[in-house]
Amino acid sequence: LSLPSSSRIHKMTIRAALRRFSAIPLRRLGDKRWYSSAADGFDATSSSSKAQPPSEAIDGFSVFPQELPSNAQDPSKDDFINDATSPPRTREQQMEYNKHESLRDWLGRQSRKRSVDEIVVLTGNIHRGSEILHNAVYNKGTGFNHSERERLGVRGLVPPRFFSIEQQAEKIWQQQVVMRESNAPKIARWRHLQALKDRNETLFYRLLQEHVEELAPVIYTPTVGEACLNYSRFFRRARGMFFTKDDVGHMHSMTYNWRGDVKIVVVTDGSRVLGLGDLGAHGMGISVGKLDLYVAGGGFDPQEVLPVCLDVGTNNKSLLNDKWYFGLNSQRLEGGDYYRVIDEFMRAIRHRWPNALIQFEDFQTKHALEILTNYRNDYLCFNDDIQGTAAVVLAGVYGALKVLGGKDRSEIRKQKFVMCGAGSAGMGIVAMLHKAVVKSGGLSEEDAYDNFYIMDNNGLITNERKLEFPREAAVEPFAKARKATKELPDGASLLDVVTKSKCTALLGASTVNGLFTEDVLRQMGEQNERPIIFPLSNPTSNAECTSEEAAKATDGRAVFSSGSPFEDAKGAVSGRLMRANQGNNLYIFPGLGLGALLSGAKTISEEMLVSSAKAISDMLTEDQIRRGCIFPLIKEIRNISARVAVRVIKQAAEEGQAKRSVVAIIESDDEHDTKLYKYVKRAQYVPEYRPTVFPVEESRRTVDDY
After folding, report:
1. Distance in Å from the first CA to the final CA of the chain
2. How confident is the model at residue 52 (pLDDT cuts 50, 70, 90)?
3. For residue 88, is it left (φ>0), alpha (ψ between -120 and 50) or beta?
4. Which residues contact 493 (CB under 8 A, 6 or more apart)?
5. Which of 89-93, 287-291, 590-594, 608-612 is least confident?
6. Are 453 and 415 in contact (CB under 8 A)?
7. What is the pLDDT of residue 98?
8. 378-389 burial, b for 16+ CB within 10 Å, e for fewer?
9. Distance of CA 692 to CAs 37, 58, 94, 139, Å?
10. Tens of pLDDT along 452-476?
């Protein structure tokens, strides 16, 4: 039976469809008889059967209505169906035949059987072949085989030559290569890939999986930032769901407008898209791009992900004055009204998909921490800007310790960190690093605070700073521990802090381009043999420094990692090559989400995030460490995500959050987690063309076995 795989049809309806659509055509149409079969209890050769099957609707196909169309006439008993087996007609018979042609055409559209490879053909009131070719989920383009072309009604609608998905992916990749070599803007490459996604989702994800190292910066940061700036103009096809402040009271019912099951939701309110500020409803682009990486990197099924934008207005005047802006044309909600929208959304998602993972993305600092605090203990959720970024930076620091020749993770206690940026991302990073210094380094919490210097746009934050609550609540313990002195007073400059603190690691989450000046970078190189320099801000235009600037100031000795991609660079004097690592959150969030869902966990703990960071650094090879790599190669992201998921599942089991079946696998596993790794790999989606049609007998056996 050829039906879309997403059809939700009761098994009895399927059986009825099988009986009726594999019908034996009757030779005559008298007495309002219909095409039927012995399976319905009718004698196909009898002229006395007057029974009419009831009306049914199968996935948009109208099947056997009880009444004839208004313009149809009752055929006479002497009417013959015009087929190859009919005897020659007399003139009178032909005139009578033409009289009822409209009825025969209508009946023929309702049910038809072709004897091609023993295949059942369904023909509905719509042209199924065109519908399939315009459905990105089912469309295969030139990838339909002969049977599929015939049975799905696409024969003649696509070019005759068959191409496998491997060949199709190679063709599209060559188009991307041509665009790259001709220096086409990345936004043009982004649009090229989005057009492919609109036509053929399976091929899109196959291409992205095979070339994730090069295409991830095109699909996501930094290119997605430019796409979000112009999202209303680039908008071609609706993806995901928009919930607005006007939908309060209706969000639960709205979730039923979305097809099927959902395993993961990425939600943003567009208030702080990357480092570009308030982009309102244009934030949908960041949710869509993030979920593309969940599919490519983690192996999530693209039919089980949901991008969401909470449109609560925008304070961006350029958008409010833009006549093409597709979001709400009003000021952004604040206070209690804003949190009521968040709360109703969270409850709606939990009620509709109780086991779904919710990831918060690009919420502004004053809301991000409070939202995470409100829901992290009751929902399966996390904030990638706060927790995901922190985990990938911790993984990078652990990797840097290996490059520096550290024996184990306890060496982290010797590092002194200067963090530029006291927002949600920056404070999430230092909070996780602080815990690592305590747990891995063996220092007390109070002593560990001495290893951190926090900077904001007003300079060094000390105990003399008046903080704003709750926005800066996360800064308070670090500010109290940093006593203001004559050498380092409150508000001290970055160069003074770097010089007098003798810091070993300089981290940036400020979104201030060029903040790490040549003097600052040179000072880091003078006081450290291998300084750790992490300009983490996105997109590239907001990075605190480039790889070239860091290599020049430190003569290529820096251990470098950035949020956006940069090229490897050489030192100005020695010509030493400095590896430009990218601390991409892609290392963390796909595996973290996959592990949390497979384990059956109800919440995501800090220990799961730390376990993810450790898993990444443990995957570094000796050759990679020797070349200055602090992260494994991104092209291995599927395997990386699987290893991260294994660690997350084991941590969930230690916390008592794992399902019994998963615990049983862990208990019977070896020291290399072989069984658990296979369990994770089997759960990963592979972008292959799925069969859409089956032989008649096989279909019938499958339905009867339900």
Report:
1. 14
2. very low
3. beta
4. 459
5. 89-93
6. no
7. 63
8. ebbbbbbbbbbb
9. 25, 17, 41, 10
10. 999 999 999 999 999 887 778 889 9
Whole-number pLDDT of residue 22: 41
Backbone φ, ψ for residue 353 (5° rounding): -135, 80
Give catalytic residues, as residue numbers.
220, 290
What tens digit of pLDDT does each residue of 300-351 get?
999 999 999 999 999 999 999 999 999 999 999 999 999 999 999 999 999 9
Tokens 């601390």, residue? 583
Span 265-275, mean pLDDT?
93
Question: Going by C-beta distance under 8 Å and a sequence separation of 6 or more, which residues neighbour residue 252?
Answer: 344, 347, 348, 351, 352
CA distance 618 to 615: 5
- Integer Cα distance of 41 and 365 in angstroms: 69
For 497, residues 6+ apart whose C-beta sits below 8 A from its C-beta are: 418, 453, 455, 460, 488, 503
For residue 155 the two structure tokens come to: 């024969």
- For residues 22 and 114, what is the distance between their CA atoms, to the nearest angstrom? 9
**Which SS3 state, helix, strand or coil, does residue 506 take?**
strand
- Strand 305-311 and strand 241-244: pairing? parallel
Token pair of 451 as six digits: 């290893």
Q: Is the pLDDT of residue 69 over 50?
A: no
Helix orientation angle between 660-667 and 674-683, rounded to the nearest 10 degrees? 140
Q: Note whether 634 and 598 are within 8 A (CB).
A: no
Summary count for the chain: helices (H), strands (E): 30, 16
**Matching residue, tokens 């109070």:** 446
How far apart are the C-alpha atoms of 232 and 229, rounded to whole Å? Answer: 8
SS3 214: helix
Structure tokens, 474: 């996360």
- Beta pairing partners, 509: none
367-426 pLDDT tens trace: 998 999 999 999 999 999 999 999 999 999 999 999 999 889 999 999 999 999 998 889
The tokens for 72 are 């149809």
Closest CA to 387 of 353, 433, 349: 433
| Short-list 700, 701, 690, CA closest to 4 | 690
Confidence of residue 565 (pLDDT cuts 50, 70, 90): confident
Q: Are 327 and 306 in contact (CB under 8 A)?
A: no
Give dist(CA 460, CA 251) in Å, integer. 44
Q: Are strands 577-578 and 569-570 parallel, antiparallel or unpaired?
A: antiparallel
Which among 124, 129, 135 has a CA at the least distance from the CA of 151? 129
Phi, psi of 688 (to 5 degrees): -125, 150
Give the largest CA-CA distance in the chain.
115
Q: Which residues make Cβ contacts (< 8 Å) with residue 383, sequence separation at least 6?
A: 359, 360, 361, 363, 368, 371, 372, 424, 428
Would you state the pLDDT for residue 623?
Answer: 95
Read off the pTM: 0.79
| CA–CA separation, 329 and 351 (whole Å) | 30
Q: What is the mean pLDDT of residues 668-680?
A: 96
